[in-house]
Inverse folding.
């Protein structure tokens, strides 16, 4: 169960009693977590990585002063329920196990956790309860089997770095826009096709790596990136579909909305005053967008296009990245026919 070296180190730690703050039993071929750890109530750091531990002992729940726990490279199959009792825990390393689920209630008491590493496991989903990790700033779940992430993860307002490389993600929740403090986002080697529009609301995002996905177009916006990597995505092929059709007949609502929005933009006093009396109309008009060619407003009918633009000079990028495809919207085929050489049509869209 323990090697002679592990036993000696454990005996030495136990002699210190409540004064023992750090226990390191890294790579000692331990097959069972020592239950005698309960005799170390003052323990702050516990390092048990690189062993053969299949589950934690119940006695770990007594270590309420523990701030750092490393159980990386063991044989755990779940994020243990006992974690909820470690209310002082700030760093939890569970990388390199066989974890495929979170035990019920595992996140309940981890309000002080700032770092969680779950790399190289077998997770196919993350429970909504992850939203209880209110202090989390760093989350890494690389090399798992995730097909999606819960929208609740997007409400971790303190999260500054999120790593989801080498999973099976096909989309990113629109709610990602609520991660206002996110600075680094890594989505390498997934199956992501589209980045949500809310992506551009990540005002503090500085590093973005989306290499090895199937992304064809990048949402337009004012991201202040310093690092941007997008190798092995179709967006570098510059082969969008041309979609040129005859102008359709607009609905009365579209015609009226365009007239009102453009008159408001020109400061029509009569409409501006009348506008205040009709909140329902105001709500509809607030959903309007602007044409990338003429700058005029439209409501529900547009042409979705892609414009290839040079990346910002401030970005640290791959050498072969010369143009970035940004999603733009055009109000009519009249404007579409006035587009520049780097604007390509994708599809006509009409919201219902």
């Amino acid at each position: 169960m323990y090697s002679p070296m592990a036993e000696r180190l454990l005996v030495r730690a136990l002699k210190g009693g409540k004064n023992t703050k750090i226990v390191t039993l890294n790579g000692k071929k331990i097959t069972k977590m020592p239950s005698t750890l309960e005799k170390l109530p003052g323990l702050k750091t516990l390092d048990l990585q690189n062993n053969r531990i299949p589950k934690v002992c119940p006695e770990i729940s007594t270590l309420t002063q523990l701030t750092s726990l490393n159980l990386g490279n063991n044989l755990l199959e779940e994020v243990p329920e006992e974690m909820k009792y470690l209310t002082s825990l700030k760093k939890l390393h569970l990388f390199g196990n066989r974890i495929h689920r979170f035990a019920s209630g595992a996140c309940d008491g981890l309000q002080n956790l700032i770092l969680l590493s779950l790399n190289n496991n077998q997770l196919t989903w993350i429970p909504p309860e992850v939203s209880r990790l209110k202090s989390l700033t760093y989350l890494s779940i690389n090399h798992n089997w995730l097909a999606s992430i819960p929208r609740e993860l997007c409400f971790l307002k303190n999260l500054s770095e999120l790593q989801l490389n080498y999973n099976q993600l096909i989309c990113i929740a629109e709610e990602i826009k609520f991660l206002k403090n996110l600075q680094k986002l890594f989505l390498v080697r997934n199956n992501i096709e589209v980045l949500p529009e809310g992506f551009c609301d990540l005002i503090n995002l500085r590093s973005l790596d989306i290499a090895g996905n199937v992304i064809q177009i990048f949402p337009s916006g004012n991201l202040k990136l310093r690092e941007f990597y997008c190798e092995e995505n179709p967006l570098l092929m510059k082969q969008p579909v041309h979609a040129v059709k005859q102008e359709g007949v607009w609905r009365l609502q579209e015609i009226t909305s365009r007239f009102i929005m453009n008159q408001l933009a020109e400061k029509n006093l009569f409409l501006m005053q009348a506008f205040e009396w009709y909140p329902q109309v105001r709500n509809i008009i607030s959903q309007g967008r602007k044409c990338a060619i003429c700058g005029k407003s439209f409501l529900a009918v547009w042409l979705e296009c892609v414009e290839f633009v040079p990346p910002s000079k401030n970005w640290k990028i791959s050498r072969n990245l010369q143009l970035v495809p940004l999603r733009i919207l055009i109000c009519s085929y009249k404007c579409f026919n006035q587009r520049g050489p780097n604007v390509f049509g994708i599809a006509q869209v009409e919201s219902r």
